[in-house]
Amino acid sequence: MSARGTYDSGNFLAAYDKVMAKWPTAREAATVPTPFGSTHVNICGPADGPPIVLLPGGGGPTSASWYRQAAELSPVHRLYAVDLFGAPGRSTPVPGRHPRTTADLVSWLDAVLKGLGLTETDLGGHSYGAWIALQYALRAPHRVRRLVLLDPTMCFAKLKPAYGLHAVRMALRPTPRRVRTFLEWETGGASLDPDWLALQEAAVGFPSVRPVVGPRPKPGALRGLDLPVLVLLAENTRTHNPSKVAARAEKLLPRATTATLPNVSHHALPHAAPAEASRRITDFLTGPAG
Predict the structure, then answer these.
(1) Which helix (H) or strand (E) holds 175?
(2) Which residues pair with 81 in a beta bridge?
(3) Are 116 and 34 in contact (CB under 8 A)?
(4) Where are the beta strands (DSSP E) in 119-255?
(5) Which residue, 138, 113, 149, is CA-closest to 39?
(6) Number of other residues whose CB lies within 10 A of the CB of residue 6
(7) Rg of the chain over CA atoms, in angstroms?
(8) pLDDT tens-digit profile of 59-116?
(9) Which of these, 216, 284, 276, 282, lies nearest to 256 by C-alpha position?
């Protein structure tokens, strides 16, 4: 979201907490110091469970959006959902100092993992968060056991021009109504959680910074990523061609598993992911990592 418009922090935090109420009751929050500021992390699951760190998409989803996965993974896994810097959420960047390069993002996430006491973890992300997760795994594969990419953008294929046009129009002059219209267009009018939708609208005007963006990873780098990767694609996504994404991921990643989730679009994820998504993620995370 742009920093333009009227932003009410109280309204945003109330909407954030309302979505967080959908998380398992046995949850906690942590504030992790990094060179770029304080990172907010929502946590649930047994303290001795195998860890998984989840990164949300950019713009407005926030870590709170992982509530369905939190409920389904937390009986076994220790789940850490991170609020990104420069995007709506509870993370607090140092004024004038925020990640500006891919190397900065890797340094930031490395500091978060160290602050959480994680020397090695499963790592997942949605959309832009999947791009960050993939970039981190390429640069620090010794810290990642398995990688889960949920409808990843700019990882294996370009964005569709129509999606880019709609997204830019919405971002240039964001209002709650334009955000709702954009989400209705991308999701094909699917029924969305009204509390989640209210959080996206409340994020309009959040004092965001320009996100770090870069080219897709080079084929040689992807071929050298020797760890299990699960790529789950939204059948109805308007962001890219899911079949092309799957084909490229299978061609380049040595140990990729791909699947297309039926009857769901890009922006309905992760909160409205079908049951098949959780089943596939659970099976993948409990499989061999070596």
Answers:
(1) none
(2) 42, 54
(3) no
(4) 121-126, 144-150, 229-234
(5) 113
(6) 9
(7) 17
(8) 778 999 999 999 999 999 999 999 998 889 999 988 888 888 999 999 999 999 999 9
(9) 284
